[in-house]
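Interim report, section 4.2 (structural modelling).
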Amino acid sequence: MTEAAIAPAAAPAPLLTVRNLTKAFPIKGGLLKRQIGSVRAVDGVNFHIEPSETFGLVGESGCGKSTTGRCVLRLIEPSSGELSFEGKDVIALSGDGLRALRRDIQIIFQDPYASLNPRMTIGAIIGEALTIHGLASSRQKYEERIVHLLETVGLQADHMTRYPHEFSGGQRQRIGIARAIAVEPKLIICDEPVSALDVSIQAQVINLLEDLQQKFGIAYLFVAHDLSVVEHISRRVAVMYLGRIVETAPSRQLYSTPKHPYTEALLSAVPIPDPSIKRKRIRLKGEVPSPINPPSGCHFHTRCPIAKDVCSKEVPPLKASDEGHLVACHFR
Amino acid sequence: MGNYLLRRLIVAVPSLLGISLILFVLLALAPGDPFGELASNPNIPPEVREALRIKFGMDDPILVRYVRWLLAMLHGDWGFSFASRVNVDTLILQRIPATLYVVGTAQLLALIVAIPVGVLAARRPYSIFDQIANTFAFIGFSLPTFFTGLLLILIFSVNLGWLPFVYRADIPATGWMWWWENFKQAVMPVTVLGLYQAASYTRYVRSAVLDVIKLDYVTTARSKGLDESKVIVKHVVRNALIPVVTLVALQMPTVFGGAIVTEQIFRIPGIGSLLISAILANDTPVIMAVTFVFACLVVLFNLIADILYGWLDPRISFR
Ligand SMILES: Nc1ncnc2c1ncn2[C@@H]1O[C@H](COP(=O)(O)OP(=O)(O)OP(=O)(O)O)[C@@H](O)[C@H]1O
Ligand code: SF4
Ligand SMILES: [Mg+2]
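Predicted structure of the assembly:
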């Protein structure tokens, strides 16, 4: 696959390209735990991420954001689709190739309490990756590197010998970030890294992530269900609904001129700091349908305020409306 | 840590005193006493019996007798077994090695089976292996040891004649033969007790591993590029075993209790069968001493469980 065909000609070659990514989890039931169906958690997702940029991925709970992120690292095996990282076919990797991929791509999780092994010291947690990838030639270098990493994320050298439970949520998230950048990755998948934190601490962590991006040129796949957080940090944003991307656009454009009815509804729920601007609140009817048995055609047609007959019959493709602005809707 | 230990041991004293008092009173109130047998023996005149009762202070108030027992105990005098005509401590010390040998080996077997099976089952929940393991675990702890014990005796001792069905503390052999005989006679009791324990431990290990394996730090470990086997050992098993280790320690007294049945079936001259024969013979000093030893075991293993927990889990601190 040539990268030029995917990215616009002027843009740099993408770091990561995701094509038609699909992940169906089997549902087992009954006495013998036989497969009785499947959840299409990710259903034909397309996007690309350029070096050193932040790509936001937003959507309601259960729409498949985490699954997408994990598939990229092959922490979950995709059911089908293509993944290419720096031109390498990620799906075909195994053994050393996969280990190398897991140096170039790292992941940070939402829950700062569950993401650090309680029986390992901070030094061991950060250092483990250095050992795996042979990044420290001596004990002294190893320790220097850990101290340096801790200081880079705003922690102190003497934190090295402590255990995770001795830290606050925000500090733990910093430890997770130090661990992720230890192996000098090119891409970090941030799976709702600030959702579990207090608002004041959220800003600190986001600023830290932005600083690190400036310093080391790391790209982020930034997953969130909070649109305002994503707007602040992302260059481009994709909106997901029930396993599919319904709209992708440069961040500012998505927020100023959303095209997809679902994006419009999501944005109408975001409070605007300036009280002189009024936005019409669009209330969606009904609940998010089950991904086990998603609606036919456009997944959104059961809740869409402008749905027509064709919507329940044909799947709208994700197509360009403006430069870099893609929408999956028959009427937009 | 030293402070904590000291405090725990001091706290243990009143509970052991309480337990021993209750035991003593219960045994004193229970019908029958060591001299009951003498009453039906026509060769012993009633005067002699009365003299013995007075000599041993059998008719004093219960509390007086309890204090006497306690003081003697503290001086290292565990009493005298009327049935065996030896000191109780000698008797217990004779019986303990066989019990420790069988129970200890059985526990080892249980863990050697349960940990790998539980971990493998949890690695792929609802897989064929998991379902087979679950089924066996279910059968394993549904079958009482007296049933499986008798079944094994029937097959391997009676029908095949491969293994002895009476356990002997005094094997008339030396050198390698002694070890071999000892091994042969331990096979069945250790298997019965070990697999029974393995069945319940397997389920604990499985659910503990299932709890840990889905946590983000395990995914993190994978995303660092660590090999799956190392992820399982270093990040999953080491954390999952924290509750299992505690559980095993807490179960030890129960295991000793359960071993009583196994000792009866295989006629192992251990501490459990000592208790049973003492109960049958109304040998109060022995019953008192053995049950008190069990009570001490409960307290001791509770303490061991807490210490292990704190040692394994850095989140716990001793204060
Ligand atoms: N291992 C699994 N087995 C079966 N179904 C799964 C599994 N993991 C996720 N799913 C299902 O896939 C769908 C998408 O899950 P995913 O975790 O990707 O959502 P998400 O967008 O990250 O949601 P959230 O905002 O709550 O984190 C959900 O319906 C979920 O129930
Ligand atoms: S395709 Fe139809 S249902 Fe889907 S968003 Fe567009 S109008 Fe709504
Ligand atoms: Mg998620």
